[in-house]
Amino acid sequence: MGATRPRMVDVARVAGVSTATVSRALREPEAVSPRMRERIDAAVERLSYRRNLMAGGLASARSMTIGVVIPSMINAFFSNTLEGMESGLAGSGYQLLIGNSRYGLETEEQLVASLLAWSPAAIVVTGCRHSRGTMRMLLDANIPVIEMWELSDRPIDTVVGFSQRTAGAAAARHLIERGATRLGFIGAMLSSDYRAGDRRAGFMAAAAECGFAPPAEVSVPEQATAVGGAKALSQLMDAHPDVDAVLCSNDVMALGAIFEAHRHGWQVPQRLKLCGCGDIDFAAATEPALTTIRPPRRAIGVKIAEVLLQRFAGVEATETVFDLGFELVVRGST
Predict the structure, then answer these.
(1) Most Cβ neighbours (<10 Å): which of 13, 218, 238, 287?
(2) Residue 333 lies in a domain
(3) CA terminus-to-terminus distance, the chain
(4) Which stretches of the chain drop beneath a pLDDT of 50?
(5) Strand partners, 161
(6) Do residues 266 and 304 share a domain?
(7) What would the pLDDT profile of 126-135 be if each residue is shown by its tens digit?
(8) Full domain range(s) for residue 12
(9) Which value, to the nearest 10 degrees, does the dihedral of the CA atoms of residues 300, 301, 303, 309 take?
């Protein structure tokens, strides 16, 4: 038979302390004196002890995991946010348990149910629109719940993000200030990507406020791709050849739009101004460089980690809405 896995009681025996002290040192290192921590750390190293997170979760009715639901695993927006969250949690002992909703409310509900079965310390979900079942589960969970990437005056618990509508409005005003006479919008999955839908709504509202006709628009039903962006721009210009400035729902769509403009000989920005959203790495390297809305992708994750660690430490929340803002990065495409 293989060697028996070392237990917390074994660490306590080698360190010459109680099991409760070992448990406290592993969960809250700052609660134990530096000298005591050194003895416990030495015992942990000597025995190659690894904590059983499930056992710890059962004992305390809370594990050291944080459930996170994002709508896309391949979208750089959310991978940057996850990286920021992990960075902010480094050294705390908390780990992320991630689920991909693929922009579906039913899938999100299933993921939240699965994550709650692991007795997480907290749940983080993307957006502020959820199914009734998800809302009920999150309200009944009795753990910190953070909604991200949007804003709401009435969050379930806490929200960290920025105003998507304001971002869309800023893009419209920028294009108008740059001399646009007819606006257009191209997007993807607007029926399920609510954040892109909010940017569109802000864009349309700002155009109306400035006395412009409703922007022409084309939306593709599939997930945003460069191919979809090229296809959408071609359809838009075929139907509305007078359009001279377009907001793309994200930078990937804008990349395809730039390629399509080059193919048709539509000079950017002289004939057609293009704006994206996301400020993905390639945005500064396109020809011309892409004007885009830069969201606080990583900062959202860092702030979430900060808020959660304070809550775990018993610090009472004084704020529930964190608006991290955005930046309109002006480059050659406008």
Answers:
(1) 218
(2) no
(3) 70
(4) 1-2, 57-59
(5) 323
(6) no
(7) 999 999 999 9
(8) 8-51
(9) 160
Handedness of CA 179, 202, 254, 162 (dihedral sign): positive
* 3-state SS, residue 211: coil
At residue 58, the pLDDT reads: 47
My answer on whether 173 and 289 are in the same domain is yes
Question: Is the distance from CB of 187 to CB of 219 less than 8 angstroms?
Answer: yes
Instruction: Please write the tens of the pLDDT for every residue from 125-184.
Output: 999 999 999 999 999 999 999 999 999 999 999 999 999 999 999 999 999 999 999 999
The number of residues in the chain equals: 334
Tokens representing 233?
Answer: 């721009």
Sign of the torsion formed by the C-alpha atoms of 66, 295, 281 and 249: positive
Structure tokens at 44: 């942990």
Q: Which helix (H) or strand (E) holds 66?
A: strand 65-70
Looking at the DSSP bridge assignments, the partners of residue 158 are: 146
- Is residue 92 assigned to a domain? yes
Work out how many domains the chain is built from and give that number.
3
**Is 144 a member of any domain?**
yes
pTM: 0.80
Helix (H) or strand (E) holding 212: none
Q: Other C-beta atoms within 10 Å of 61: how many?
A: 9
**Are both 176 and 242 inside the same structural domain?**
yes
Residue 19: the pLDDT is 86
Judge whether 93 lies within some domain: yes
Domain at 279, CATH number: 3.40.50.2300
- In angstroms, rounded to a whole number, what is the distance separating the alpha carbons of residues 257 and 259? 5
